[in-house]
Automatic annotation (TrEMBL):
<dbReference type="GO" id="GO:0016020">
    <property type="term" value="C:membrane"/>
</dbReference>
<feature type="domain" description="MAM">
    <location>
        <begin position="2"/>
        <end position="148"/>
    </location>
</feature>
<dbReference type="InterPro" id="IPR000998">
    <property type="entry name" value="MAM_dom"/>
</dbReference>
<dbReference type="InterPro" id="IPR051560">
    <property type="entry name" value="MAM_domain-containing"/>
</dbReference>
<dbReference type="Pfam" id="PF00629">
    <property type="entry name" value="MAM"/>
</dbReference>
<dbReference type="InterPro" id="IPR013320">
    <property type="entry name" value="ConA-like_dom_sf"/>
</dbReference>
<protein>
    <submittedName>
        <fullName>EGFL6 protein</fullName>
    </submittedName>
</protein>
Amino acid sequence: PVDCSFSRGVCDWKQDADDDFDWNPADRDRGDGYYMAVPAFVGHKRDMGRLKLLLTDLKPKTSYCLIFTYRLAGERVGKLRVYLTNKKHTPVWEQDKGKDERWRTGKIEIFQEAETTNSITFESERGKGKTGEIAVDNVILISGLCPED
């Protein structure tokens, strides 16, 4: 598996220059590394922040699974979406609120057709709330289908 966690720096993460705000590193409670987050007080309602993971060397006609942890903490904090390069306008994954403030796991199947996916974008859309954060961590790409829970 390719581990694209933010504490390791193996993977090529880029902030989108055309969005409204950047994602920022945030320290973990227990101090083991950090994750990427958008605090709720940044920007205005409907502002977007995009963090892009550039992928190289994915083989065509192969399945991959993207696994990541995420958290939507706070009242009306906004939405988190994931886009793949070749399906730019429709998110392959979207979440708009957490039942609680815990970290949860997201999984996305990526099937490489002839057109390969060369990036994955995590997009945060600001909501009305002023407390909490939208956060992503532990991004891992494995080959093959996503494992069942």
